[in-house]
């Protein structure tokens, strides 16, 4: 008999779930209630959501503006995003003008430090303050409405950013100070914050204000401000960029005439003492110089600074009476003579030049300049040589020297004419011998610097000195320039047995256009290596491998010489062989190294490509090995005697952990310091006695599933587990959400959590890199799917009430089915009863039809207790399952005068018969029954296999008989079950999905049409299918777009809920597609334009990215100077970034990872400094990092 139970309890439960899940009910008299109505849940919507699991998020409308009460915020912004993880938990979204801020009811601790990213929200939330007892760190200007006064002994950070509106007595800025000034502690008092501007350019500060400005090291006025008389300018104003309008600008330049110098520089400094009186300022590029007309003393000795300045004062020369001091550190400027200066120290009559032609003078020992018989630019080289060309002087091509000049050429041993010079017939001297040595050549000869074209077709029969081929070179060789010498021309053919001389052998190494014929026998006396281009020109040695030869990759075909005939280099061990140009010299397959062998750097690098070789296990890995252990070594049977085996198991006492795993990997960075390796089953876990830090940020997400196996450790009783640990091991002493015994699974309901901070129904609630909420709405629990994904799934509560006296029984039901394909389906039912003596007979009938090749196992645990009342209970619940199965079980139990009948029906359609087994365990007896399963020829729907689940209810009729006697049993039975996703209820006449059908979440069960028979519209790509009303049309699991596909807005919306699909990595994300679904990463997607998750920088600070591995740009508060340098280092300043004096880095910055960066100028900083920073540049109350 089947009866339908009353729906009232279910509706009440759904209504209660709805109320609990709605975090923002809005009253009807709210001015914005019309905008909110579109987003609030209705009773019917809540009931349907509870029935079909349709998720709901109350997102903020795009046009919403808060009313200033602090009670109308939303848990989700206009894009449906919950509160970011870097903001305090419990904050709400109050529209685009306010953003995320604390609601009126939000509270903080008295010592709460406001994060930098939360300052904006606190400053805009006019309805909220932390309370008068708040004593958190004042790192910013507190809002006026907080009415919180600083302590009397409070000191500011001297950044100008943390001034307060009230002093320690609660007073605001006194009238003696300008409006806008803030309190910076007793040491400074009231002063100007960063960015404050004077009320006018003519503002004259009071004496009190002037005193404050002299110690406010973060502030300087605008350059337009006129300094009042009597005001002392603080020294730090210039370093902050301030300039006086009465001073020259830093870029000012003088006229170059020496008549416009100033008595102060661009910083207002007067003449430094290292310069003589009367010198003036002529710009930042020239500095302090003598003005045009300044006269020095006869014996004036300039300082080093003054000497250097004289070399740029082009308008000034000393008087002729000035005695040049020996300490003068500059050469005499050339313009001094032009300005009329003469030196009494002209060359003496006996002065001689250095013979190099580089020290000639423009006047002789009598002060005479060059005579006209000599060409222009000739210089004086002493009385014995006279006027000569300097080294580098170039004459004209047709220059005809005078008789005097001709005579002089015979003694200028450093000079030769250019080769283009035509020797005139009137030349009265012989060609000097050094001209050829200096590069001069006759136009009929090649010049010394002549170079051939490199093709071997322009050789000459004489060299640059007119010499013909030397006898050490073969006939036919030609001259190809001084750098190459005599070489074979392109096309010259040697004899088969030609043996080159030593000179000819050396020449062959530079004749890049020539190679011998292949028949040439290389003589043993050849003193050079075979040139590389010989092979490129077609020459081959039949005994060598070709350059393109590749080995077979097995390590058994190596050679003892390379493609150039070279034997094994000494940097490789004996017996190593050549395996091709791409691999080089490697160990052959079977080569055995010594136990203590230490490979060279070259050999180490080669080991990383010898995929067929691994060292013997006795080999001790040297500390100097420069490569990581190749992955194939372990595959080839190598083990490190210091590592545990893969099958090693710990003792379970927590005292035998290791510092590395079976592959030699040390503790990953995501695990706390002090954890050890306890084998593959336990992994990295805390050792016995390990003390955990406060808070729960240390808990690695990958360790959470391993907690039941770590039986030797538990956190302190005061520790609160993170939300991600939904089930706490029973051996932990801390306060549990729900508990799980070691190696035992127990089902329990999750603790009640405010829905405002929870994930939605069917939403992600956990997984590696997931930063959202780990709690779920009422009626749902966070179910583990894999290490990257956990989901809020419903908990189905099935309560069956039975009248029971005392009974003990063990009931087992089995069924055997014959079908076309073997399929096994098992459901295990365990029942525990408190009873006296009972007897029962059980018979079970079941008809099951299911698709071939499908195995389904559904464990059900039932706990029962004896009851004192006797009543008749009939329960009937309709179920939607993955297939239609008709099962009928009838149970009759008689004792006294009460009969209990329970009916359950499950209807499933499939193609093959299925074997169904059920077992019920009581304390004493056991019986067996036979179940007959019959296949039904109905339409087949493929059952789902994924973990996206919906509630399932069943109707079962069970009849218990045993030994001919029936005993009435009264008992209360509660069953909690989490089941697989239901399949669609299909209308047989047209094959469309029903309106209430929801997909399984696998992406494999979509329909070509929706429940109205409509196909995929033009706004969706071809190949998309219908996955129920909650998803709509979406891509099937294996659907692939083109690399340049741009989804429509409708398609983009569908992609955010199609949790089974991600695009291929080759897909180019279009510019308009701004929200990447978080589950794409868990499915393995990566953007080719982003760095990979495993990418690490090279440590130079030059290879950073503007986005991280998930495509996120700089976090809030990080300026353009920050780039992404990998998961380990995060966002860091790039190489070359020059910090401003008032640079305030974000509080989330971890400076110790920026090993390439240090402050390069004076920096006012109160944070933790790194050891490699220069202390001389840091200002403020900083401390050293350990």
UniProtKB/TrEMBL annotation:
GO cellular component assignments: extracellular region
Keyword annotations: Signal
GO terms under biological process: carbohydrate metabolic process
Recorded superkingdom: Eukaryota
Domain CBM1: 757-793
Molecular function in Gene Ontology: cellulose binding
Signal peptide (from-to): 1-21
InterPro entries: CBD (IPR000254), CBD_sf (IPR035971)
Pfam families, per the entry: CBM_1
DNA repair listed as a keyword: no
Protein name (Swiss-Prot/TrEMBL): CBM1 domain-containing protein
